[in-house]
Amino acid sequence: MKDTTVRGLSMETRQGFIVLRLPAQISWQNYAGIREGVSKALTLASAGTAPAAGRGGVVVDFGDAVLLDAAGLVLLARAETRAQLLGCPLRAVVPALSAHVRRALRLTGLSRLVPVFADVASATTAPVLGDEAGNVDTTYVLDAIRALHPGDAGLTPTPPAPSELMITTTAAGDGDHTVVHLSGVLDDVTVPRLGDTLTRLVEGNLRHLMVRMHDRLGVRSDPLPILLGIRWRVAAEGGCLALPALPAKLRRIIDREGLGSVFTGCRSIEDRVLRTGPA
Fold this sequence. Notes:
Layout: E1 10-14, E2 17-21, E3 25-26, H1 31-47, E4 58-61, E5 66-67, H2 71-86, E6 90-93, H3 99-108, H4 110-113, E7 116-117, H5 120-125, H6 138-148, E8 165-171, E9 177-186, H7 190-203, E10 208-213, E11 218-219, H8 224-235, E12 240-242, H9 248-256, H10 267-276
Parallel strand pairs: 2-4, 3-5, 4-6, 6-7, 9-10, 9-11, 10-12
Antiparallel strand pairs: 1-2, 8-9
Helix pairs in contact: 1-2, 7-8
């Protein structure tokens, strides 16, 4: 069967593996479509719903593909992360003549994360081991990809779409409490920035904080470790950290872990802020 969304991208099943053959050129121009194809293949393989599925697994066949930028390497790194989460074997095919691709996988450490074979036949017939990937620091892998492609430092499709988190503060009106308003996205990049901001507020002798999150705030990374750290810090000095009007996703996490009572602040001031909104 063929994936018609990306020219040159095709999918078939061999020996229980889903083989995804990549286009002749891989760049940010076709990255999104290829990524969707890889994601679909991993989902089918992990669910055992692929035609003639046996052992299950995905083979990403680079064939004679040319890597025009960092897109192909980022694609494989992301696929490996998802494959690990799904418990799905992931392999790559890079012919011996594709020295440039093999070199890139070796320099970035990706060849230690994803087993590399010379052809589809060997990739689909080799025994599946319990843990095919080595113990590799994925942070190092991403840093190595950036070093190979400094022009793609953000490792994102063009145009770049960096994470944004808007943080504003307002006085609650009682002379003690500070309301921290958040909108945008909480992810691996912006959560530490939130921690830095809250730390500076605490070090500036603000002990009573209320973090109010916009109802459309995106939550892609767990901010609780940082929020708990700030909570314990201000509580030790008689302060509080309240979290009113939480996004549903974060509320479920807090409720599941039984942390709701931890983030209750001074109830009177919290009720007043919720009624009046931002200043």
